[in-house]
Amino acid sequence: MKKLTAVAFLSMLAFGMLVNPAISGEAPNQGQLLNMYEKLDSQVVEIRAQMKRGELNSRHIQDLIEHRNPFLLKKEESVRAENTFPLKVNYDLSVESLVAHGKYDWKNDNITSKNFPTTRKGTAELDIILVHLDRDVSTEEAIKELDKLGLRPAELQELLAFGAKYPDEQRKYPIVALGSVWRSLDVRLVPYLWSGGDRRVLYLHWFVSDWHAFCRFAGVRK
Q1: How far apart are CA 203 and CA 180, in angstroms?
Q2: In this predicted model, which residue has the larger pLDDT, 105 or 78?
Q3: Is 46 contained in some domain?
């Protein structure tokens, strides 16, 4: 669908909805029609501008025509190719070995095999999907959002394998693995990758704390 055609069609559709008595309940008078036209004209200008900026496209227009909300986040768009990272994970390696392989500039010394055991065995080829919720969220909220996308939270061993294979990703944003939790006394902590200046670091963060909007949550398909 060409942009001009899409705008014209949407204009006619909107105008028809405004003046159709079956939709609005009664036919508008001349003054109401003029007011509707002025509003519609400004909306068409805005639609053109949004299409030029790439904020609207033919799919959005088609969704509107078919009475769907074009701005609802779709599952297939949330797990985009650019957010998907193929990975091979060896669960038989110790956490200490995985940390050493990642060559981090600093790590929390509590990130050990003793504190983060796994029941998984052998090796697995999987995709790590980095999900950006773009808002501050609690840990529980983040896990629920991952579940809606058909993902489970990544575990520490998967996060460490990711950090070793894609070392520059953590320089862009914090990458959180909510699938592994260490309880120290009454405090629960989860691992995440981040950077401090030019240094790549491996942190622990409180499970009950909120996560900033720029965080990425590492997920694995169920």
Answers
A1: 13
A2: 105
A3: yes
Cβ–Cβ contacts within 10 Å for residue 222, how many?
9
Residue where a domain stops, chosen among 17, 42, 65 = 65
What residues make up the domain containing 32? 3-65
d(CA 202, CA 88): 20
Yes or no: say if 162 and 154 are a contact pair by the CB < 8 Å rule: yes
Domain-embedded: residue 74: no
pLDDT one-digit tens code per residue, 126-154? 999 999 999 999 999 999 999 999 999 99
DSSP labels for 67-132? T--TTSPPHHHHS-GGGEEEEEEETTS-HHHHHHHHT-SEE-TT-STTTS-----SEEEEEEEEE-
pLDDT in tens, 84-124: 999 999 999 999 999 999 999 999 999 999 999 999 999 99
CB-count burial class (<10 Å; 0-12, 13-18, 19+) for 28? middle
71 falls within a domain: no
Mean pLDDT, the chain, whole residue set: 81
